[in-house]
Amino acid sequence: MSDILGKLYLNIGLSGRQHNWTKAPCRQLCGVSLFFTALLFSGVLSSIAQYNQDSIFCKDSLIKDLYDLKSAIIASHPNPYGFCSREEFNGAYSHAVSYLTENRSLGEFCKTVGTVMQVMKDSHSCIDFEYLQNMQLRNGKYILPLQFISLSGGIYLMKDRDGLIDPGSRIICINNVEIEKIYVEAMRFACVEGRAVSAQQRVADAVLPVVLGMNIDLGPEIKIDIEKEDEIREIVYPAYNQRRWKERQKKLEDKEFGEAMSLSVDEEDNTAVLKIGTFAPLGGLKYANFIRKSFKEIKKKNIENVVLDIRGNGGGSSSWVEYLYSFIDTAGYNTPDNIIGKNSELAMKRSSGMLRPISQWMIRNFYKKNEDVQNYIKILKMEKGEMDTLYFSDPVVQKIKKVYTGNCYLLINGLTASAAVDFTHSFREKKRGVIIGEPCLGPVTGTWGNPASFSLPRSGVKVNIATIRYNYDRSFRYDPQPIKPDYDVKTEITDLEDGKDTQIEFAKRLIQKKSISQKK
Fold first, then answer.
1. pLDDT at 4
2. Longest C-alpha distance within the chain, in Å?
3. N or C: lower Cβ tally within 10 Å for the chain?
4. pLDDT at position 9, please?
5. What is the rounded distance in angstroms from the CA atom of residue 14 to the CA atom of residue 33?
6. What is the distance between the alpha carbons of residues 261 and 216, in angstroms, rounded to a whole number?
7. Where are the beta strands (DSSP E) in 212-330?
8. Do 511 and 409 contact (CB within 8 A), yes or no?
9. Distance of alpha carbon 311 from the chain centroid
10. Cβ contact 424:410 at 8 Å
11. pTM of this prediction?
């Protein structure tokens, strides 16, 4: 999935879990959202990528990078064999090395790295999507600011902020290359968690705009062949270079909170839709106030049905999971039950800020009795390579008058990841309501978190590696099955064309049906 896909597009989330305890006094071990939520709307362009994707590297250097990557994973990951065997793990690297029979371009090597990291089936351990985006925008390269969705009939346009292509249009070719061929390449980068295969397709949807530039020479004008109402036509789309992209993102910054967080209330239908697009807010106070005020308005208007929309929520912090859940359950909820932490050079580098004098002073004076912070410090004080299991017991509980006890409906999809999976688990475990949508990007027993950044020494390719295992209970099982909705509802093409939201419309029909049955 920062909000591990966290900002690929704002309505699609994938980043990893991050511990950001300085922003809130409650648990934060859960989330870095999968970067794909914000890739398209993130305004930050780092200078990590030092080479053009066409740069050629000696095969021996790339093979050494693969061995270094493997060593870094073994040293830092709590259990790289959780969802794959040791033989499968080693075999993936042996196969990748055997493929490097000659010198390769950086772009080609990125595909190798993306594929080999899929073997662990850990969405928090994957190639860094922001790195790929930045690589595309260097040296005069271009990018398409479009959101795609793969459905049974092909690849369709989900959203075009520039309004040049109608939603629901089927994409046929880009610069005369069939979109399905590019989609196969996107699947090589798409991270997966356990057996969340359908969710992996949503990740591929999210990274498709970036992968386009790794397979097609994109110039300032890109030819797109689309099909709409049985008519095929060609559109010349003005793409974005690095300068235009940064200007565009700056203009979108003020809109981002509204994209990620919103409340709409229909008093006539007695229904409210509360969108929570991230558990990794940039401004914690604003975020908390929005949630608190939203439920206050819902209760004031005596709304009987609330639809919680966490589709595309790439995760963030478990403290915000507990905070949101505390407004729909008088008993609150504690997550995680426990974490398995592994200390390593990468993990320590990731959390070096906690060792600064000001951080140590804050811990001594303000976090002495905070189990979250103290458990995290225990991990940092372990010897390198050492692992330990740490337990949690303090849920966030609201005053009863603030808690909403009416009917709840939860919307999820394949880009509901990391901390958003934790919320889905809490909602499901406590039987708080009906779940609608698609299987999310996370298993039923737990996942990984706190990914640390690692740059391959020779090529500079940047990846993320999980450093903790995050468990929902004490069974310590590695169940690969994703959390599934009560109603599997996929987006309808006709709804895309008509500007309707398939899952929300389905939820409203369920509410109406329940209301009618109660009146009889």
1. 34
2. 75
3. C
4. 36
5. 5
6. 35
7. 221-228, 231-238, 261-266, 271-276, 305-309
8. yes
9. 10
10. yes
11. 0.90
- Please tell me the distance from the alpha carbon of residue 339 to that of residue 371, in angstroms, as a whole number: 12
Q: Sign of the CA dihedral 311, 317, 320, 326? A: positive
Rg (CA), the chain: 22
- Continuous segment of H or E residues that includes residue 446: strand 446-449
Do 292 and 402 form a contact (C-beta atoms < 8 A)?
A: yes
39, 9 Cβ separation under 8 angstroms? yes
Tell me the C-alpha distance between 437 and 435, whole Å.
7
Report which of 489, 516, 515, 487 is spatially closest to residue 500, judged by C-alpha positions.
Answer: 489
pLDDT at 20 over 80: no
Q: Hey, which bits of 214-353 come out as E strands?
A: 221-228, 231-238, 261-266, 271-276, 305-309, 338-342
Question: DSSP character for 190?
Answer: -
Core vs surface per residue 156-190: b (16+ CB within 10 A) or e: bbbbbeeeebebbbbbbbbbeeebeebbebbbbbb
**Under DSSP, is residue 57 helix (H, G, I), strand (E, B) or coil?**
strand
How much is the pLDDT for 25? 29
Locate tokens 């005596």: which residue?
Answer: 302
If phi > 0 it is left, if psi is from -120 to 50 it is alpha, else beta; for residue 342 that is beta
Q: What is the mean pLDDT of residues 210-223?
A: 91
What is the layout of strands, in order, in the sheet containing 15-16?
6-8, 32-39, 15-16
Please give the single-letter amino acid code of residue 262.
S
Cα within 13 Å of Cα(327), Cβ side: 21
Could you tell me the pLDDT band of residue 520, with boundaries at 50, 70 and 90?
A: low
pLDDT of residue 331: 94
In 378-424, the DSSP E strands lie at: 387-391, 407-412
* Distance between CA atoms of residues 279 and 23, nearest Å: 13
Least confident of 336-350, 354-368, 421-435: 354-368
Helix or strand run (H / E) with residue 465: strand 462-465
**What percentage of the chain exceeds 90 in pLDDT?**
70
Q: Tens digits of per-residue pLDDT, 369-417? A: 777 778 878 888 899 999 999 999 888 999 999 999 999 999 999 999 9
In 182-326, the DSSP E strands lie at 221-228, 231-238, 261-266, 271-276, 305-309
Q: Categorise residue 159: left if φ over 0, alpha if ψ from -120 to 50, beta otherwise.
A: beta
Confidence of residue 5 (pLDDT cuts 50, 70, 90): very low
Among 520, 476, 454, 494, CA closest to 127: 454
Angle at 77 between CA 76 and CA 78, to 5 degrees: 115
Residue showing tokens 């006094």 = 25
